[in-house]
């Protein structure tokens, strides 16, 4: 007799994962690993390419971090996994469609925008968000048409996280080193003419409160033809609380080593400054400088230290300003949103309706839209595991609406009717192969990325047409 239980061959448990970054892939993996359940995972991404910030965020000179995609290839190789690239929820499929076509939906949509400084003239030409710059140099289609003026000598990066480290480094890496990376062609071209010679990184708190990690900090000191400047006085501060955690101590050791370095007369320099906040951007038609406020640290009720302005200010010259003060989640239509934390309210990954305090049935979140924009790629593994455990618990305790959902073929027909041209994982692997081929042609580059959606779709269409044309026709 045929088994008709949900999760059987006849009625697979159908799960949609919205977003194909690390948290989405780990969630897909945990769902797929159930020996006693037949599960079909459909992963959606609005771009034709998968991998989220691994492709669009990780710095081009960090290839080892990017190699994690080999793990995602294995997850995608599961026979019941499908990738639907170039499909945007809200445009090609609605939230209601997902509810109707799946037993459960996992949102892995990340944090799509960035925090604002909220200071006068924040949007003057020459003042940018780091997320724009990062997306641009990583060939993300959304940022393809951005322009950055590198004709001035001085750039300032506001923020003390790893994104600030990435931005400072990419601005000063010798162009011949960038040539060996998968940085976007347009960025390589623009940075080849860059006149930036000095990058100042501003921390609003002190060296012991910085968010960057020691490895990333150390890399600043390894750039060729670049001096790193840290004022020794910045490291003479009162020790608050107990011993520093290992990571903080690691940062302090590296900063101390930087502060002891003698300038070598290198053509470029990175200056790390602490306890400084920008309060205004200076300039009329474009950025000319910044007004900086000096800060002091004051303990909060929770025991943490916050920056408080002392009232002393200074003006510093600058031609470019990047705010690298954190990403920010955006609401997803049809789901509740906690605007104070910029996350979808949830309990262990179960979306929770703040009005009732009750879970929203069969809707889940993972990654940055669940916990906020913190942590490294690996942080998403336990995070996604927790959500999938909640999902499976709901499934096994009958908290799921056991409704019949249409088969995958019906979904694909619907997409066809809506003229939503989806990109499969095989298609993506073709794009991947072509990008690598372009890299070899350009000489020793890991890949030359496509940076426009139309270009990717046209290339796919062209290659598919060629494949069809190559099929020998039978003589009649
Ligand atoms: P982040 O680690 O949260 O750092 C944000 C920084 O901005 C902090 O120093 C914060 O200072 C500062 N900040 C926030 N608001 C500010 C304001 N109004 N004025 C001045 N400074 C302000 O964020 P992120 O650098 O965007 O990185 C996001 C996540 O991705 C992190 O977990 C990071 O480690 C990860 N990441 C990892 C890598 C890597 O592994 N290589 C690379 C890039 C990103 P306070 O501490 O005072 O709030």
What's the layout of helices and strands?
Elements lengths: L12 E6 L3 H11 L6 E7 L6 H5 L6 H4 L2 H8 L4 E5 L9 H7 L2 E4 L5 E2 L12 E3 H8 L16 E5 L3 H11 L2 H4 L6 H8 L5 E5 L11 H7 L5 E5 L15 H14 L8 E6 L2 E7 L6 E11 L5 E13 L2 E4 L3 E2 L17 E2 L2 E3 L6 E7 L2 H4 L8 H17 L11 H10 L7 H18 L10 H18 L6
Parallel strand pairs: 1-2, 1-4, 2-3, 4-18, 6-14, 7-8, 7-14, 8-10, 9-10
Antiparallel strand pairs: 5-15, 11-12, 12-13, 16-17, 17-18
Bound molecules: NADP nicotinamide-adenine-dinucleotide phosphate (NAP).
NADP nicotinamide-adenine-dinucleotide phosphate binds next to helix 7.
Give a brief outline of the structure.
The chain is α/β, with parallel strands linked by helices and 476 residues long. The chain has helices spanning 22-32, 52-56, 63-66, 69-76, 95-101, 130-137, 162-172, 175-178, 185-192, 214-220, 246-259, 368-371, 380-396, 408-417, 425-442, 453-470, and strands at 13-18, 39-45, 81-85, 104-107, 113-114, 127-129, 154-158, 198-202, 226-230, 268-273, 276-282, 289-299, 305-317, 320-323, 327-328, 346-347, 350-352, 359-365. The site of NADP nicotinamide-adenine-dinucleotide phosphate has 24 residues, from α7.
């Amino acid at each position: 007799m045929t088994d008709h239980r949900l999760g059987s061959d006849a009625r697979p448990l159908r799960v949609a994962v919205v977003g194909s970054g690390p948290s989405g892939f780990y969630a897909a993996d945990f769902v797929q690993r159930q020996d006693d359940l037949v599960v079909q995972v459909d992963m959606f991404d609005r771009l034709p390419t998968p991998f989220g910030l691994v492709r669009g965020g990780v710095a081009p000179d960090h290839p080892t971090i990017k190699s994690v995609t080999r793990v995602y290839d294995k997850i995608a190789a599961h026979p019941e996994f499908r990738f639907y690239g170039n499909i945007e929820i809200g445009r090609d499929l609605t939230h209601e469609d997902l509810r109707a076509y799946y037993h459960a939906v996992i949102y892995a949509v990340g944090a799509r925008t960035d925090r604002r400084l909220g200071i006068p003239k924040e949007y003057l030409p020459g003042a940018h968000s780091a997320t724009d710059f990062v997306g641009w140099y990583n060939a993300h289609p959304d940022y393809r048409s951005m322009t950055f003026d590198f004709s001035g000598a001085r750039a300032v990066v506001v923020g003390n996280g790893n994104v600030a480290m990435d931005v400072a480094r990419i601005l000063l890496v010798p162009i011949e080193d960038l040539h060996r990376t998968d940085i976007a062609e347009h960025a390589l071209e623009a940075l080849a003419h860059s006149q930036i010679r000095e990058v100042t990184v501003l921390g609003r708190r002190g060296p012991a409160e910085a968010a960057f990690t020691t490895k990333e900090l150390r890399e600043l000191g390894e750039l060729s033809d670049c001096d790193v400047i840290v004022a020794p006085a910045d490291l003479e501060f009162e020790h608050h609380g107990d011993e520093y955690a290992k990571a903080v101590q690691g940062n302090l050791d590296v900063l101390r080593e930087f502060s002891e370095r003698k300038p070598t007369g290198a053509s470029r320099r990175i200056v790390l400054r602490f306890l400084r906040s920008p309060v205004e951007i200076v300039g009329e038609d474009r950025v000319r400088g910044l007004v900086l406020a000096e800060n002091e640290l004051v303990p909060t009720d929770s025991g943490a230290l916050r920056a408080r302005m002392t009232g002393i200010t200074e003006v510093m010259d600058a031609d470019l300003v990047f705010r690298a003060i954190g990403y920010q989640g955006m609401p997803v239509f049809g789901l509740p949103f906690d605007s104070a934390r910029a996350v979808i309210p949830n309990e262990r990954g179960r979306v929770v309706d703040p009005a009732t305090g009750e879970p929203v049935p069969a809707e889940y979140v993972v990654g940055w839209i669940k916990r906020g924009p913190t942590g490294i790629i690996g942080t998403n593994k336990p995070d996604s595991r927790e959500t999938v455990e909640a999902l499976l618990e709901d499934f096994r305790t009958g908290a799921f609406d056991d409704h019949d959902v249409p088969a995958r073929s019906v979904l694909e027909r619907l997409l066809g009717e809506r003229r939503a041209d989806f990109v499969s994982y095989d298609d993506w692997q073709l794009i991947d192969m072509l990008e690598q081929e372009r890299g070899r042609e350009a000489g020793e580059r890991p890949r030359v990325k496509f940076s426009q959606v139309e270009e990717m779709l046209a290339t796919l269409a062209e290659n598919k047409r060629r494949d069809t044309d190559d099929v020998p026709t039978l003589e009649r």
